[in-house]
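Run log // design_07
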C-alpha cells in the first residue's frame, strides 16, 4: 500500500484522505487484494462534485473539486418567501449552472450532486423528504431534481452530512466521536464516529438528533414544534434576535434578513449593553444544551457549526465552554474539546458534497451512471 500511495499518480484527495485518517481503510482494501489500484483510479480520473444546502434562510450551491476544495458558490436568499419544492428545484438548477460556468467545468465532469435537507429522507424507490420546518411532507425532491439535471443526485439530512465533512476535513479531524452542533434558525446535532473500516465509511458514520427540541426549561417559551422550553426556542437565530428586540434598550436593526441581523447583533455585542447581554444568555443556554449532549454521549469533540454558529461562535465560545465546565460531569468535561467549525460559510454545502464523493469511493472509482 505504501508504494501505491506514494505513487506520483496519486492525487491530492488520497493524501487528504490519508491525513484525515482514512489510510486505515485503504489498508483494509489493500488486504482484500487488487483494490488499491482501483482507488488510485478514482483519484486519477478526478471530477467535480456539487453540494447543495437547503436552509430556511438561503439555498446555497457549491462546486467542489475532488478534495472538497471550494471552487465556486452561488447563494440565494430565501428569507422572505415560503420555500416551495418547485422553487427550490429552480434555484438548484440555476445555481448548478452558475457555479459550473464560473469555473468552466463541463456538466459531464460532475461526479454527482449531494443535497443536504433540514429534515429526514425516507429511503425507498422514490426518496421522500420530510422537513416540517419548511412545511414539506413526503416531497420527492430527488426525482424532481433528476428530471432537471443529468447528473446523479443524492439526498441526506444536512446535519448528518455536515458531521461527515467535519470529521473528514474540519474541526472533527482526529477525534473518535464528534458532536456537530448545527445552529441556524433551527438547531440540530449530528453525532459522527470515526470509521473503523473502509466498509464503515461507505455506510453511515453519522446520525442526527432533534437536539433543538430537547427541553431545557420547564414551562419555558413556546416552540414551533408545539412543545415548550425547547433549546431551539432559546438559541435558534430568530429566537436570539427576538430576545434582543424584547429588551428595553435594544435599538432596531438597520438591515433586513435573519442572517444580516444576527451579524449586526454580534457586532453590537462587542460593546457592553443589550446585545452583549443577549449573547451571554445564548451562550449559557447553548452550553447547557451541549452539557446534556456530553453527559449523554461522551464525545471527545464538540464542534459549533452552521451559519449561526459561524456568526455567533467566536463571540460566545469562551462563555459556552465555561457553562459546559460547570454543568457537564467533570470526567466527561475532562476529555472533550469544544471548537468552532472550520469549514467556512459553505460548510453545509460542503457536507452535502461528501455524498457523491462517498458514492464514487464505494463504486471503486467509477463515475456513477
Ligand atoms: Zn421544539
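design_07 sequence
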Amino acid at each position: 500500500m505504501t508504494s501505491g500511495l506514494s505513487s506520483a499518480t496519486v492525487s491530492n484527495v488520497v493524501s487528504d484522505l490519508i491525513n484525515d485518517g482514512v489510510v486505515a481503510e485503504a489498508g483494509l482494501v489493500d488486504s482484500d487484494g487488487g483494490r488499491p489500484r482501483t482507488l488510485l483510479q478514482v483519484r486519477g480520473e478526478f471530477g467535480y462534485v456539487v453540494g447543495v444546502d437547503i436552509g430556511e434562510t438561503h439555498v446555497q450551491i457549491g462546486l467542489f473539486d475532488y478534495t472538497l476544495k471550494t471552487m465556486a458558490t452561488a447563494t440565494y436568499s430565501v428569507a422572505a418567501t415560503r420555500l416551495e419544492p418547485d422553487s427550490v428545484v429552480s434555484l438548484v438548477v440555476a445555481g448548478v449552472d452558475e457555479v459550473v460556468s464560473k469555473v468552466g467545468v463541463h456538466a459531464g465532469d460532475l461526479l454527482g450532486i449531494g443535497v443536504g435537507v433540514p429534515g429526514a429522507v425516507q429511503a425507498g424507490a422514490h426518496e421522500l423528504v420530510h422537513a416540517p420546518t419548511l412545511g414539506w411532507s413526503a416531497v420527492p425532491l430527488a426525482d424532481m431534481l433528476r428530471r432537471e439535471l443529468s447528473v446523479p443526485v443524492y439526498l441526506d439530512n444536512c446535519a448528518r452530512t455536515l458531521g461527515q465533512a467535519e470529521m473528514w476535513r474540519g474541526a472533527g479531524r482526529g477525534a473518535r466521536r464528534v458532536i456537530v452542533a448545527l445552529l441556524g434558525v433551527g438547531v440540530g446535532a449530528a453525532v459522527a464516529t470515526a470509521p473503523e473500516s473502509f466498509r464503515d465509511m461507505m455506510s453511515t458514520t453519522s446520525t442526527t438528533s432533534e437536539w433543538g427540541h430537547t427541553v431545557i426549561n420547564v414551562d419555558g417559551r413556546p416552540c414551533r414544534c408545539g412543545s415548550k422550553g425547547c433549546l431551539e426556542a432559546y438559541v435558534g437565530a430568530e429566537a436570539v434576535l427576538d430576545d434582543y428586540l424584547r429588551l428595553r434598550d435594544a435599538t432596531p436593526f438597520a438591515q433586513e434578513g435573519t442572517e444580516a441581523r444576527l451579524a449586526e447583533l454580534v457586532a453590537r455585542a462587542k460593546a457592553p449593553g443589550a446585545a452583549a447581554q443577549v449573547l451571554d444568555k445564548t451562550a449559557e443556554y447553548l452550553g447547557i444544551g451541549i452539557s446534556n449532549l456530553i453527559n449523554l454521549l461522551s464525545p471527545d469533540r464538540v464542534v459549533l457549526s452552521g451559519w449561526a454558529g459561524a456568526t455567533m461562535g467566536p463571540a460566545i465560545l469562551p462563555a459556552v465552554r465555561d457553562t459546559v465546565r460547570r454543568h457537564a460531569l467533570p470526567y466527561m468535561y475532562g476529555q472533550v474539546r469544544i471548537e468552532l467549525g472550520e469549514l467556512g460559510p459553505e460548510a453545509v454545502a460542503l457536507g452535502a458534497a461528501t455524498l457523491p464523493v462517498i458514492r464514487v469511493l464505494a463504486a471503486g472509482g467509477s463515475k456513477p451512471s
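The mean pLDDT is 83.
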